[in-house]
Structures are given as C-alpha cells and as structure tokens.
Amino acid sequence: MPNVIQGTALLAACTLIGILLGQMLGAVLGIDANIGGVGIAMLLLIAARLWLAQRGWLTSGITTGVGFWAALYIPIVVAMAATQNVVGALKAGPMVAAAALAAVAACFAMVALISRLSSPNT
Amino acid sequence: MIAETLTTQGLLTAFALTGLVMLLSEFVSARLTRGRIHGSAIAVLAGLALAWAGGSLTGGTKGLADIPMLAGVGLLGGAMLRDFAIVATAFEVDVARLRAAGGAAVAALLLGLVIPFIAAVLVARASGYTDPVALTTIGAGAITYIVGPVTGSALGAGPDVMAISIAIGVLKSILVMVATPLLARPIRLSDSRSAMVFGGMMATTSGVSAGLAATDRALVPYGALTATFSTGLGCLLAPSLFFLAVRAF
User: Fold this and answer.
1) What ranges do the domains of chain B cover?
2) Residues B147-175, buried b or exposed e (16+ Cβ, 10 A)?
3) Interface touch A80/B78, C-beta < 8 Å
C-alpha cells in the first residue's frame, strides 16, 4: 500500500489547520474557546478529497491512510465513554439530574418534530 | 512487572483493552440479543460501566483512565484522537447530501443552543436560583460541558455553580449516548438529513459521536459535522446574548 502516510498526513494537516483557525476565530471574538475548529477541519478534508479526485491524485494509499482512522472511530469513542466522569454525573444532586433530563428530553422532542416537518418525502 | 509494562505501553494497553471490549460486545450482541442491539451500542454502554467502575475504585474524575495501568485509555479516548477520527469520517461525506440538509442543520444548530439553555434555566429557577450569572452558567452547561465553564468563567460565576454547570453537561452527554440508539426510530434518525439535525440539536460532540456510533456508523460524519460547531457557537452566544436575555427577564 504505497503512500499511506500521505493520507494520514493530509488528515493531520486538515485537523491542525481547522483547529488553528477555530482557535484564531475564538481569539478574534475575544473568547478562550475553539469556534468550530473540528467542523472547519471536516470541510477542509471534504474539499481536499474533491480536489484530489478531480485531478486523479486520489490514490489508494491516501484513501487507506485516512480510512484507517475513520475505521478506528468506534473504538476511540468506546475509549472516550470509558473515561467519562460517570460516578460524578450519577452522584450529582436532583437539580442537576432534572436540568439534564429536561434539556435532553426537549432536544429529542425537537429532533422528532423537525424531522417530521422538514422531511421532503413524507 | 506486568503492571509496569502495561503502564509504560499505555496506548498499546488501551488498544488491546478496547479491542477486547469490542469483541465481547459483538459476541453479546450476536448471541444474547440476536443482533437486535448493535455491538457498538453495547460497547459504548460497557465503556460507561467501566468508567463507573474506574471512578468508584479511584475516586477520580477520568473513569478508567484514573487507574495508572489504564491511563492510555485516556489518550485513546481523549480529545486529540477523538477529533482526529471524527475529521477522518468526513472523507465519506456526500457533498450533495450536506447541501440538501444545510438549512435544516443550521436551524437545528441554533435551536440546539436555545432549547437546552431555556430548559435548564427554568429548572434552576424552580430550584431557587435567581442570580442571572448563576442561571446563565447553569443553562450554558446544558448546551455542553465546555460551554458551561467557559461561560461561567467569562461571567465570574462561583465554583459551586461552575461544578453544577459541568455536571449537567456531563450527564447530558451520557444521557445522549445511552438514549440515541433507543430513541433513533421514534425520532426518525435514519438518514444524513436527520443526522445533521440531530447533531446540531444535541450539541454535545461526545454524546452525538457515541450515540450515532451506537445507532448507525454511516450517520456519524453528518451528525458530527453540525455538532462540532455547537460548542464554539455556544461559547460565543451564552456569555453574551443569552446572558443579556436572562438578565432582562
């Protein structure tokens, strides 16, 4: 598999640039937070893929170098779940539980509503 | 000697352990639920259970990663590799689908900030909080557990309110992880469009990424794309616009 590192390097470059731009956007707006860095990185990677494909430069090495990390997504998420502060979340008081439950319930209800309203084929 | 090896080879230990958890989860899914519950959904639940076990054993806040031998799980599941893997999933995105759902996704992104904020502010008010700084910080925590403390420190909230705000955000993300595969059908979470709406509405990147992974891996990039904008936008709006709104009422 030639040039697998090119795919991983492309992914790393997009992620780094995205996070940097998100950080800069935050600094410009005067808050110490990353504004959409990961989302910007995703859009950069999508643009890079289209650009490479247009020129016929999208080699199997590049696809594999990115695809490997996409395939590791679920195990990484499982590891993330295993490092959540579950004990703290379960121990927190009734107000915390009520606020979180109310927020999550309202959001799920809104998704149900929006998907019924905006779905073009219903 | 075993413990020392596992500690120094932290990331490799995490790979092996996570692989084992996934393998057992696939087995449970296939044999005990006949494939009705996704292996990845069981794996996420197992991860949360392990986090609970780790936290109970050590009294720490990082779940399994507080056990020195398993600190590598914190690297594997930490923000750097999580964001790296999320960006990688964008390689699968169909741009036409992204465009088609753009409007609905932006609407969901904004509603995903306002609705949980209002819900939590109302609960806090009913619980006796009246200070607009505390109310805003608590409401911001219901967006994500990062928006909460960022807002709190911008407004100068007290440490107890900050702790409450973070706890609400963490509990929200765990609830989204667990509830998404269960509620996917009734809320019609089944295609790229609904996944983008879902990501914006739920806001929490960790909750959305784990919830969609447990529901349908193909939906992950669409949901993650909108969700990753929520925290930044929340950090922008909660201490400014939302705070002014709370103070006005």
Assistant:
1) 2-77, 95-248
2) bbbbbbebbebeeebbbbbbbbbbbbbbb
3) yes
- Full domain range(s) for residue A8: 1-84
Instruction: Let me know whether A52 and A4 are in one domain.
Output: yes
Residues of chain B neighbouring A115 (CB-CB closer than 8 A)? 187-189, 193-194, 197
C-beta atoms of B48 and A26 within 8 A: no
Please tell me the pTM assigned to this model: 0.90
A105: number of CA atoms within 13 Å, CB side?
8
What's the pLDDT at A119?
Answer: 59
ipTM above threshold 0.85:
yes
Same domain, A2 and A25: yes
Closest partner residue to B187 among A80, A99, A112, by Cβ? A112
A121 touching B (Cβ < 8 Å): no
Which residue stretches of chain B have pLDDT < 70? none
Q: State whether residue A34 sits within 8 Å of chain B by CB.
A: yes
Considering only the beta carbons, identify the residue of A35, A42, A72 that sits closest to B236. A35
Give the residue-averaged pLDDT of A52-67.
95
Sequential DSSP letters for A66-100 = HHHHHHTHHHHHHHHHTTS-HHHHHHS-HHHHHHH
| A79 and A98 co-located in one domain | no
State the distance between the two ends of chain B, measured CA to CA, in whole angstroms: 62
A27 close contact with B: CB closer than 8 A: no
Determine whether the interchain pair A108/B179 forms a contact, defined as Cβ–Cβ distance below 8 Å. yes
pLDDT, one tens digit per residue, over B111-129 is 999 999 999 999 999 999 9
Assign residue A35 a region (left: φ > 0; alpha: ψ between -120 and 50; beta: otherwise): beta
Are A52 and A91 within one domain? no
A28 lies within 8 A of chain B by CB: no
DSSP secondary structure, B55-113, as one string: HHHH--SSGGGGSGGGTHHHHHTSHHHHHHHHHHHGGG--HHHHHHTHHHHHHHHHHHH
